[in-house]
Structures are given as structure tokens and as C-alpha cells.
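Feature request, filed as a ticket because there's no other form

It would be nice if the structure record came with a short human-readable summary line next to the C-alpha cells. Right now we just get the raw output. Example of a typical job, pasted below so the devs can see what we mean:
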Amino acid sequence: MQKITAFILPIITAVIIIFGLFKRIKVFDCFLCGAKKGFHSAVGLLPALVGLVLGVTMLRESGALSVITKMLEPLAEISGIPVDVLPLAVISPVSGSGSLTMFEQILRDFGPDSIQGRVASIIMGSTETTFFAVTVYYGSVGIRKSGCTVPAALLADMTSFVMSAFCARFL
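Raw output as currently delivered:
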């Protein structure tokens, strides 16, 4: 099986080239055109991504993350989310790398079999980096107003946080 997977990408590439030659398509010119469009998309997304990374860094380094988690502690107790998992819940809609760092810290401090580790594991598997996804996908097609996308996605994230605590405790 491992030998087969090593040949999948070269086989797909060869099939595309052969199909293009058969249809008399200038395959390399098409490739260059697509690469050029991809580069322009990446350059267009760069300012938004830099702003997102800067915002997450400022949130963590300024101590605002601690203030936010302190304010959310009563809600966490009501919903059953362990207080130690709150930083992960706050960061996960914003930053994938930031939430991965928080997740690793939770596993290191409490262990993967603790309630905190189980809740954090379920959160990592059931939530999306909402703001990153909206920035990248909407930015790539030029949409400036996200409408109800962000509130709906954040509601889905909150549902995932609460249900992760429920599932980790009772299932």
C-alpha cells in the first residue's frame, strides 16, 4: 500500500499532461496562468493574515487573554467547561497555531486522560478557526461583508465547546 501511495501524485500528473496533450491544450501555459493567479491571491490575502497574526499575538502577550478568560469563568462553570480549557476556547476561533499551543500546554499540564485533556481534545477536533477561515475564503473572492457567517460560525463554536464538556464527562 505504501508503494502505491508514493506513485499516486506522479500518476495523476502524468494523466493530466497526457489528457492535455490529447486535447491539444498547452498544459504548461495553463499551469503558469494558474500559478500567477495563485500568487496574486496570496499577495491579496497577506495584509489580512498579518493583521490576524498580530491581533492574536497582542491578545496573548498583553494579558487580555487572561482577562477574557477570567470574565468567562462563571459561564464556564454553568456550561461545564473546565476553567483551564477556557484559553483554548477563546483562541481557537481566531488562530490555529495559537490553539495548538494552548492544546499542547493543557495536555502537558493535565495529561490527555484528564477531564481538561479530553475536553481540549474534543474542542480541537470539532471547531474551526472561524476568523482565519472567513479571512482566507472570503478575502480570496473579494467578499467584504460576511453577513451572518461569523455569528453563525461563532455560535457553532460555542455549541462545540459546551458539547465537548458534556461528551467528555458523560460519554
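Something like this underneath would help us a lot:
The mean pLDDT is 88.
The chain is about 80% helix and 0% strand.
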